[in-house]
Structures are given as structure tokens and as C-alpha cells.
Amino acid sequence: MPSKRRQSESGAPRRVSSRTKRASRQFVRELCVGCILWLPEKVAGGESVKCILPQCRCNNSNNSELDSEGYKHYVVILDVFQTADNKTQCYVAKLTSQTGKYPIDRIKIYQEASTSPPDEVGGLFLEHGSMPKQSFISLDHAYQLSPQLLRPMKTEHHACDRRLAEHSYTYLMDRLGLKAAKYQNTNLAKQLGAAIRTATTETPLLTPTPTPRNSAVDQRNLDHEALHAAFTLPPPPAPSKPTKPTPQTRPHRSTSSTNREANASEPGRETIAPRSALEIDALLQRYRAQRRELERARARVRDLESGRDGEGAGPGFLDRCAGYLLGRTVYAVEHAPWEKVCWVAVIMVALYYAGILKAVWPTVQVLGGWLKGAGLWTWRWMVKMIKVLVPCVKDLVVGAAKLIFKFVQVLAGCLKGLCVRAWGGISELVKSSLGQVGFG
Questions:
Q1: Fewer CB within 10 A of the end CB, N or C, for the chain?
Q2: pLDDT of residue 186
Q3: SS3 letters for 282-296?
Q4: pLDDT tens per residue, range 188-220
Q5: Boundary of a domain, candidates 151, 179, 198
Q6: What DSSP designation does 41 have?
Q7: CA distances from 116 to 112, 169, 269, 291 (A)
Q8: Domain stops at, among 171, 198, 225
Q9: Which of the residue ranges 239-248, 289-298, 325-334, 383-392 would you say has the lowest mean pLDDT?
């Protein structure tokens, strides 16, 4: 029990320091939506943590409570509120490092920062920093618990140091079928504290309307039942009977599914709506993946046509120009007025009979041969230039080496002369010194 854990070995109860109390109050004060916190190991006899999603299958059984394996994980804060008895509660979703059997039930948290909307990439982003390892948010459940059970990622960190970006939080709540709360600035939350909503707000928390069998589970928790009663929308009105088709309206084909009576054991339309949204999102992701594959295939075809995949040098500059001109000509002929095409045809026939077009093809052949000859001549000129430059460079290197050798010889002779003169001076000085000593 918690009281036994707070007793020392001598049996005397251990007091909780005022510093710990202040840190706990500061932690709850900074708690805001989108924060990622640590849910430690479950304490024996602690409060129960239950799923609050109306479309979750676990609400129809006895498995709605978070099991022991669900603890010791990171969680993301979905909403923070105060109950009627002034108790602070929050909704959380669990983080995991496993992709799961069905990727549609997971959302990836990207490690790098981004400003693009998450629906374009199918993932979530943090305001700053990164997770210790690649993490995913599970969409299967969302739990209600007390913030006293949570801990920051590190002891000296704030509660909102690791937080989802605003567009990522909104996208996550939309995927869960919940109405997003107000996203407060992180710096303001650290300085002034986070804004915690109360049960008197008129904004509905859950977007889908709960069905009768979903609301039966909430009888175990009075606070939860009061919140659902205050923050849910009224049921939709019953559909009217079909009228006879008019000339302006299109008759609907009657089926057995439209005429049969509603079954209370089947899930309502509100329960199926969130799952249908998830399926639509999966189809959109599959479409984006196929579009990326198509773009890669087109790039592959362009690489093969240009010869950049080791299949050859590809078309040259003149061939590309000719292809471009031919394409533009075909486009102009297809989209030009008929009168303009007729005038161009008449002008071309007149030029042909005048002999001007006859000289075009020989001119092109001569020009092509000249360009080819110019290219070959350029290569030949470069080879001859190299043959001429090699002996010149060789003679230049040999001459420079001889000049350097002569300079070294002259320098060595000068140094030798200086050494001989210095040695002679030193010898005469020594001899004079020895003569003076012997004379004395």
C-alpha cells in the first residue's frame, strides 16, 4: 500500500517534503495538451485507468481497464479538465515503439521537425527535440487518469518540454474521433501555467454521439458519466419516410437494407464513422504511395532515355534539338487554324519548285560534315599540341633543374670559402694565444 511505502525501516512514517509538493503542483500547473510524459509502473491498489473511446470494442467487455503491460510507457496528453468535485483529470493516448499488426492503428512520430501539415505525410511532429527512439501513437484506446500518475521525461524537465506541434495535435484528435482542445503556447504555459477547462464549458468533447450500449459502461464512474452527459451532442432526428419521386428528383432503388428495422445489437452510424475515417485515411496513404511509385517510374524512364543508367551516352544535343523542333511543329500543325496550314503548304510547294528547298538538304549535309570534320580536327589539333608541349615541358624542367644545380654549386662554394677563412682566423688566434703564454 502507499502508506507502507512511505514508512522507513523503523516503522515511523516518512513525511513528504514541501519541495516535492511544490514540484508536483508546478507539474500539474504546466500540464497542457500535446505533452508527452512517462507513465510509470502501476502501484498496487492505485486508481483504475479505463478507455473512454465510445467506438472501442473493449467498452463492451471487462477489458476496458489498462493492464499492467500498458504501464511503463510514454503517453501523450489529449485533454486536461476539472471534474465537478474540482479534481484534475486528463485523457491520454499510449506511445509504443512497435508498428503493430495493422499499421492503420498507429501514427508515426517523425524525429525531425517540419512545418508541413501532417495529413500530407501521414505522421506527427514535435515542436522541438526528438524522442529517445522511433515511437508511434496507438489509436486503439484513449484513457482517463489522474495527472499525479504521470512523470516528466527527466526530473529536471518541465511537463511541456516534449510536446506535439499544434497541427499534429489537431490531426491526432481528428484520427481518434475527439474534439481538439485549445492549444496554448508552450512558453506561456511554462510562465503562467496551462489553462484547464472545467465541466461547465459548452464545447463538446467527443464528436461522435454515444450509443446506449456505450453509455452503459460509464455507470461505473460517476465523474466520467457526468462529463459525457455534459459534453455530448443530442441524438440526430429520426429519418423521414421516403416520398414519391418527382420529375426533378431521381428515384432511389429500394433495397432490403433500407427497409429493414434497426437492430439494437448492431453498431450505430456514429460508432462506424470514426473507423470509416481511418479507412479513408488508409486509402489516401495508399494512393500517395502509388503516386510516388509512378513518379519514380517516370524518372526511371527519363534516365533510360537520356542514357544516364549505363545504357549509353543517350541522344546528343543536335538530336534533342531536332526532336524538340519536330514536336513543336506537330503541336503547331495540330493547333493552328486551317487557313494558316494551307498558306504554309502553298509557300512550301512554291519554295520547292523554285529550287530553294532542294539546296537545303545538301546544305545540311555539308554543315553536318563540316561540324564532324571540325570535331575530328579539334581532336587532332589537341593531340599535336600535346606532342609539341611535352618536349617543351621536358626541356623546361631540365633547364630549371640545371639552373638550380648551378645555384647550389655557387652557394656551396661561397659557404666553403667562408668556412676556410673562418678556420684560418681561428688558427691564427690560437697560435698567438699560445705564443704569449710561452713567452711569459
A1: C
A2: 84
A3: HHHHHHHHHHHHHHH
A4: 888 777 777 765 444 344 544 444 334 333 444
A5: 198
A6: P
A7: 12, 13, 32, 19
A8: 198
A9: 239-248
